[in-house]
Q: What sequence folds into this?
C-alpha cells in the first residue's frame, strides 16, 4: 500500500521532479550513485560549487559560506564512497582525494556575524574523519586526521551558542564572536553525532560541550514527540513547522544524537518517529521536494530536509525491534529522488544539491544492506 502511495506521489510531482528515472534495483542505484560521484568530483578533490542555474538562491556570502557548503558536501561524499559495498579502484581514488581535500580545507571561516554555515562543515567533517579513523586506523594520514579532528572539536566549542546547541544563522541585531542567536535542534544533532564519532576514534571531547548540547535538544522535544526547529521555537510548539507533520525529518537525527550520548530514547519513541516520517506524514515530506524557496511547502517543510531526514532514519533502525518493517519504506522514499543520470537530489542549492543528495541516498541504500531483499527485484519476481 505504501509503495502505491509513493508511486502516486511521484507521478503527481513529475513536473518538479523532472524526468523520472527508470525503476532500478538497489544494486543498480548504488552503482549509479558511486559512478556519478566519481565522475563529478572537482579537480581539487571536493564536490559541488557556487554555480547556480536559477536566478534566486539562499543567502550565502563569499567566500566563507560557499567554502562551508563545499566542505560539508565533500565530507558527505567521502563518507558515502566509504560506505559503498563494492568499492572500485576509481571510487577508492576519489575517496582518497576527497579526504586529502578535507584535510587541506576543513578549517572554514564564517563570512559574517550572521552566517555561520561552517558549523555544518565542522559536524560532517568530524564525523567523516572519525569514521575513517575507526575503519582505517593505520592510514598514513591518521595523525593529520587526529590533529584536524582536535581542531574541529575546538571550533565547535567556539561556535556553541549560549543556549547550548549550534545554529547556522544569527538573525538578531548584534552579532557577536560567539553566535548569539538561537541554536537549531537538527544542526545540534548533526554536530553531536560528529563529536560522538570523534570520541569513538579516541579524540578528546569536552563533556561540558556535549552535556549542554544534549540538554538543548531535550528541551526542544514536545509532549507529542516532535522536536521544535530550535530553542527559539519552544514557546510555539503548535506552529506548523513544530508539529509532527512539519518536524518528521528532524526527529530521527535528534533521537539518534541524544541516544549516542546516553539519553537513550525508547524503542517506542524511535518507532513512532519512523512511522511519522515514513507512514503517517510521508505525503507532506514528499510534497516539499524540489520547491525552490525554503519553508514554502505544507507545515513550512523545506525540500533539503528530505534526504537528510531519511539518512538519520536509517541510523535509527538499530533502535527499533522490527527494522525490516521500515527498511523497504526508506528505500522507496529515497528512490523517488533518483535521476536518470544516477544522481539524487531533493532541493536546488547552487551546485551542491546533487552531490550531497547523492551522498545521502548512497549512505541510506548502502546501510540498508541485507535487511531486506532488493525492492525492484522482488517486485518483478
A:
Amino acid at each position: 500500500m505504501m509503495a502505491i502511495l509513493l508511486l502516486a506521489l511521484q507521478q503527481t510531482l513529475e513536473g518538479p521532479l523532472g524526468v523520472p528515472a527508470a525503476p532500478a534495483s538497489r544494486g543498480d542505484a548504488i552503482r549509479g550513485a558511486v559512478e556519478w560521484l566519481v565522475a563529478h568530483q572537482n579537480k581539487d578533490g571536493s564536490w559541488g560549487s557556487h554555480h547556480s542555474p536559477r536566478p534566486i538562491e539562499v543567502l550565502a556570502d563569499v567566500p566563507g559560506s560557499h567554502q562551508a557548503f563545499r566542505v560539508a558536501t565533500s565530507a558527505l561524499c567521502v563518507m558515502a564512497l566509504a560506505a559503498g559495498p563494492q568499492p572500485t579502484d576509481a571510487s577508492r581514488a576519489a575517496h582518497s582525494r576527497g579526504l586529502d581535500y578535507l584535510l587541506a580545507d576543513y578549517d572554514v571561516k564564517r563570512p559574517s556575524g550572521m552566517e555561520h554555515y561552517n558549523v555544518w562543515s565542522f559536524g560532517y567533517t568530524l564525523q567523516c574523519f572519525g569514521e575513517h579513523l575507526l575503519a582505517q586506523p593505520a592510514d598514513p594520514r591518521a595523525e593529520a586526521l587526529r590533529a584536524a579532528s582536535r581542531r574541529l572539536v575546538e571550533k565547535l566549542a567556539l561556535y556553541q551558542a549560549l543556549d547550548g546547541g549550534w545554529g547556522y544563522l544569527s538573525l538578531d541585531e548584534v552579532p557577536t564572536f560567539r553566535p548569539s542567536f538561537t541554536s537549531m535542534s537538527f544542526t545540534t544533532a548533526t554536530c553531536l553525532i560528529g563529536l560522538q564519532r570523534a570520541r569513538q576514534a579516541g579524540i578528546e571531547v569536552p563533556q561540558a560541550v556535549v552535556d549542554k548540547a544534549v540538554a538543548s535538544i531535550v528541551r526542544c522535544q514536545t509532549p507529542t514527540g516532535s522536536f521544535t526547529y530550535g530553542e527559539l521555537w519552544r514557546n510555539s510548539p503548535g506552529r506548523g513547522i513544530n508539529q509532527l507533520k512539519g518536524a518528521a525529518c528532524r526527529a530521527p537525527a535528534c533521537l539518534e544524537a541524544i541516544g549516542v550520548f546516553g539519553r537513550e530514547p525508547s524503542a517506542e519513541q524511535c518507532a513512532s518517529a519512523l512511522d511519522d516520517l515514513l507512514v503517517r506524514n510521508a505525503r507532506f515530506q514528499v510534497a516539499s521536494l524540489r520547491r525552490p524557496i525554503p519553508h514554502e511547502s505544507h507545515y513550512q517543510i523545506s525540500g533539503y530536509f528530505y534526504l537528510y531526514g531519511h539518512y538519520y532514519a536509517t541510523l535509527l533502525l538499530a533502535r527499533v525491534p522490527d527494522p525490516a518493517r521500515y527498511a523497504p519504506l526508506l528505500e522507496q522514499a529515497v528512490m523517488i529522488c533518483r535521476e536518470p543520470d544516477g544522481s539524487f537530489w531533493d532541493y536546488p542549492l547552487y551546485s551542491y544539491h546533487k552531490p550531497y543528495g547523492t551522498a545521502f541516498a548512497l549512505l541510506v541504500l548502502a546501510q540498508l544492506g541485507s535487511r531486506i531483499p532488493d525492492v525492484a527485484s522482488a517486485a518483478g519476481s
